[in-house]
Each structure stands twice: as C-alpha cells, then as structure tokens.
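Researcher: Next entry: ADP-ribose pyrophosphatase (Stenotrophobium rhamnosiphilum).
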Amino acid sequence: MSGPFFKFCPRCGSPMSTQHHGGMDRQACTNIPACGFVHWDNPVPVVAAIVEHEGDIILARNVLWPGRFFALITGYLEKDDPSPEIGVAREVKEELNLDAQAVTFVGHYPFPRQNQLIIAYHVVATGEIKLNEELAEYQRVPPAEAKYWPAATGLALRDWLISKGHQPEAMQFS
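Model: Predicted structure:
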C-alpha cells in the first residue's frame, strides 16, 4: 500500500489505521467491534480491445490525454455485463460505434499504477467508425507496422502481434 487512502472510515467515520488482514497490511477502521470495515484495495477489472477493422488495428486517443498518444479501446467491466467478452464488445460499440463480429481472449495484464487488471481481447469489428465524446481521434495501423508500449495494454498488443507472426518493436519514449 503506497499510502493511506482513507483518513476516516467511509462506513462509520472513525479513524482508519494500518492493520494486518488477509495476510497483508491494509487500512481498517479502528472501531473494530462496532464497525470492522477493511479497505481491501482490490484491483478494478478493465476490458481492452485490440480492434481489427478492415484489416487494420484501430488505436484511439482519449480527450483527457496530453500529447498524441494512441492506445487500445478500454473500459471498466460493468456489473451488468454478463461476461468480459460482452463487456469488451459493448465498449467497442460505445466508443467506436463498431459491431463486434468475433471476440478472442488475448490475456490478462496487471496495471498497478491504476490498480487495474486488464482483460484483453482481439475484436474483429465491422461498421462505420464514429467516435464518442471520450475519444479525440483515432488512427489505423497495419498490424505489420504496429509498435507496442511496454505496459499493460501495450503488452497485450505485443502478445497478439507475436501470435499473428509479427515481430513488433517497442515504442521509444523520450
């Protein structure tokens, strides 16, 4: 744990302290007998799509990102999604207006900086691209020319490219 998330218990308002629960140090309510709240700080599941549209990979730039970095389509796995596969198809539809024709699991990847677990899929999609309000722009990249970034969704892209017989290069950041 990198530092206190809560100063006070979100359930009863008592001070929080570091206590040992479930084999690890975690934040917990000091009002143990009456409240007993423990902040487990489990990672949030996020679905990611390597979208293949008309033979190209579609990468997008979020409106909140500085610069011109493009990445995979991602979104939180919603509690009403019947499965991660349906969740990733929903995200592709919401963000790109594309219909998933085939969804194939690529792998799962930790993203500790955001306390997320990325569940990545290759999504073959059809339709006309129309960006929603979350995305500023997109780019098409032929798989043979794709480069990956060395974290989370970038590692999923790398693994998928290798599985398709490509030898992708890592992006160089200055």
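Model: Note for the record: The two ends are 30 Å apart (CA to CA).
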